[in-house]
Design goal:
Layout (H helix, E strand, L loop, with lengths): L1 H9 L3 H7 L5 H17 L5 H4 L10 H8 L6 H5 L9
């Protein structure tokens, strides 16, 4: 959890940090640069699978994926019933 807060603080602009009352030290900045350098140097050696995430919904059934990409908001089950309700995602 502390790492998430640290990354969140790192990604916020300095002016926003001041408004939100977040502290960011020179040591934090050095650690962020060190981490970024490590990621930049190791990234090319990672496998293709590790470097790229699958699309959201990659494992979704084809029928449902086609309905979503075609702009339909009803689920497969709801479209078969007489009272179709939109699915809220």
């Amino acid at each position: 959890m502390r790492v998430n807060i640290w990354f969140g603080t790192a990604l916020v602009l300095e002016s926003a940090r001041q408004v939100l009352g977040l502290t960011w030290t020179e040591g934090d900045q050095r650690r962020l640069r060190l981490f970024a350098t490590a990621v930049r140097r190791t990234w090319p050696y990672l496998s293709q699978r590790a470097r790229h995430f699958n699309r959201a919904g990659h494992d979704m059934p084809d029928v449902l994926r086609r309905r979503i990409t075609a702009g339909h908001t009803r689920s497969v089950r709801a479209s078969r019933s007489c009272r179709a309700r939109p699915v809220l995602w």
